[in-house]
Design a protein that fits this description.
It is a single chain. The protein is mostly beta strands and 90 residues long. The protein has one domain. Helix content is 8%, strand content 29%. It has 1 helix and 6 strands. The chain has one helix at residues 50-56, and strands spanning 8-12, 23-26, 32-35, 45-49, 70-73, 82-85. The chain has a 6-stranded mixed beta sheet. The radius of gyration is 12 Å and the shape is globular.
């Protein structure tokens, strides 16, 4: 059962192999995406509870309060996040 405190989120599977998440989207519909690449493939995606994402990289929890319709990106693990608004046309 999913709760608001631990929703199901989209991730790229290689995140669990140590590849850092570089882009996070909190979509207008409330969905979250944690991406390790610029061109993610649906074949590489899976849904997991957000707590599993935080267990893999605790620094991602700092983004928990991102409003819907926003994104955050960084160049590498440990680098500062850049934030922006989701483009509703994409």
């Amino acid at each position: 059962m999913t709760t608001d405190d631990d929703p199901l989120v989209f991730v790229e599977k290689n995140m669990f192999d140590g590849v850092p998440v570089l882009t996070v989207y909190h979509e207008l519909d409330g969905d979250w995406q944690y991406l390790t690449s610029l061109n993610p493939s649906p074949a590489d995606a899976q849904m997991v509870h957000q707590s599993h994402v935080y267990a893999t990289d605790p620094s991602l929890k700092t983004l928990h309060s991102m409003p819907k319709g926003t994104w955050a990106a960084r160049a590498a693990r440990g680098e500062p996040w850049t934030h922006g608004l989701e483009d509703p046309e994409t």
